[in-house]
Amino acid sequence: MPFVRNAWYVAGWSKDFGEDLRAITITEQNMVIFRASDGQVVALEDRCPHRLLPLSKGKRIGDTVQCGYHGMTFGIDGKCVRVPGQDNLPKSAYVDTFPVHEAHGIVWIWPGESALAADTPVFDMPEFSDPNWHAHHGDGLHLKANYLNVAENLVDPAHVSFVHPTTLGSAASENVPVHVSTAGDQIVAWRWIKDSAPVGFFQNFGGFTGNVDRWHYYYLHLPSTAVIDFGSADVAAKLEEDERDKGVRIFALHFVTPVTEDYTIDHWMHLRNTAVGDEAASENMDKMFRIAFAEDKEVLEAIHIEEQRPQKRKPIRIAIDKGPNVYRKRIRDLVEAEATEDLGAPLHPTFVQHD
């Protein structure tokens, strides 16, 4: 399926981009990224219009990029500012630019129609700016899989019991019902596991000695940003759904960026209301997250391989697929909307619709 291009995707963390030219790809569009002298991150098309050499193979000269083949030079607005050996600058001598947004140590890039970017909000959460919460950037998980499968995995609480039995889940949740809501802009799936032993993650970071009530809330923001709200509280606390802040609560954020149809990067980080300011805790959490996400990677890459092979029969769908099914339909609708142009209501129509 084609990509949704009119969207903000994470290119990486702020610390990943400096003065040097860096090549990245988002939705099969090659870009060269660098931080200009004023500190702003710049994203240009990574292809010289002359002989098509990637500009990332050239060099930075001040706030311009010089092609490494014949020296054509481009400014941060994409316009050619120099053609060695001639004074005139052809109008066709330019490269595309891509809107960039940087906040909370995250760099977002818009690979679609530039004019639409300003009116589209960038994902945010109040906890980013709340001193009672700790934000920690993790890694970029590289997967040889289509981004839709990766995103679907992030609105699927049911898989946790089987894929992550020692870290994020356990057998205690296998038959606990999953609730799904598709009424809003986000697709939400959730469940509570009552009065059970803490999972491996919260054995390490919750300090629990007895059974807990624990929860998983999965929020999928189109096209592919996922927030997993999970946590635990002592059974005696008898927490209600809207009291999760009273427990040990963590938001695992997954910014799923499609590189190509067969390659996806999941930039992951977390927000937590425990061990605030404790970097040792962050490093230990990262170790457990890496174990869990490596389990996801193994599953998703194996699925992708099988999807490329001939199918003997139609795949089946079961009850837990409600969220992913709605997600796929919404993605198809977005792709279709980008592929067509709506001219609006006609002034003098000769076609009259009655249904």
From TrEMBL:
Gene Ontology MF, one: monooxygenase activity
Domain of life, source organism: Bacteria
UniProt cross-references to InterPro entries, sorted A to Z: Cholesterol_7-desaturase (IPR050584), Rieske_2Fe-2S (IPR017941), Rieske_2Fe-2S_sf (IPR036922), VanA_C_cat (IPR044043)
PROSITE patterns to which the protein is assigned, alphabetical: RIESKE
Record keyword Iron present: yes
Its EC number(s): 1.14.14.-
Keywords in alphabetical order: 2Fe-2S, Iron, Iron-sulfur, Metal-binding, Monooxygenase, Oxidoreductase
Domain Rieske residues, every copy: 8-109
Protein name per UniProt: Toluene-4-sulfonate monooxygenase system iron-sulfur subunit TsaM1
Organism of provenance: Planktotalea frisia
